[in-house]
């Protein structure tokens, strides 16, 4: 499993805002403070994450979480299976399973999987691990 600190992709989210808040954002965009609504929202999110960085760091340490991009590779899972070992994985970010990983191999090697962020895996693999994904 390869763990990388940087984010490889972005995940789309949808939010609902009241007309007053939306109008205030549009005013800031119109005045040139932000290039568009998305720029404002990303900046606001990053500002809040920076303000809460200490709490996030303490929570990550307390819960023993991996932060960033966590790639599951077939060869790594085969090695674990051959050793008779299993993983209990907790990821904050993106957990990504290589497309060549067989659902049976994943079931043999993944005992539990918690992802706070996004999980990229084939539908068959997600189905095979459904009882282990928290």
From TrEMBL:
InterPro entries: Arc_rbn_hlx_hlx (IPR013321), RHH_8 (IPR041088), Ribbon_hlx_hlx (IPR010985)
GO biological process: regulation of DNA-templated transcription
Gene3D superfamilies tied to this protein: Met repressor-like
Protein name: Arc/MetJ-type ribon-helix-helix transcriptional regulator
Annotated organism of origin: Limimaricola soesokkakensis
């Amino acid at each position: 499993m390869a763990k990388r600190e940087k984010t490889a992709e972005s995940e789309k989210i949808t939010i609902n805002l009241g007309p007053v808040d939306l109008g205030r954002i549009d005013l800031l965009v119109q005045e040139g403070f932000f290039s568009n609504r998305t720029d404002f929202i990303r900046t606001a999110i990053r500002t809040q994450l920076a303000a809460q960085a200490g709490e996030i760091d303490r929570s990550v340490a307390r819960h023993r979480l991996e932060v960033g991009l966590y790639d599951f590779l077939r060869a790594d899972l085969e090695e674990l299976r051959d050793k008779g070992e299993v993983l209990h994985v907790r990821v904050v970010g993106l957990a990504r399973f290589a497309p060549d990983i067989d659902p049976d191999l994943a079931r043999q090697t993944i005992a539990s999987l918690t992802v706070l962020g996004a999980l990229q895996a084939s539908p068959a693999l997600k189905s095979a691990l459904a009882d282990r994904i928290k």
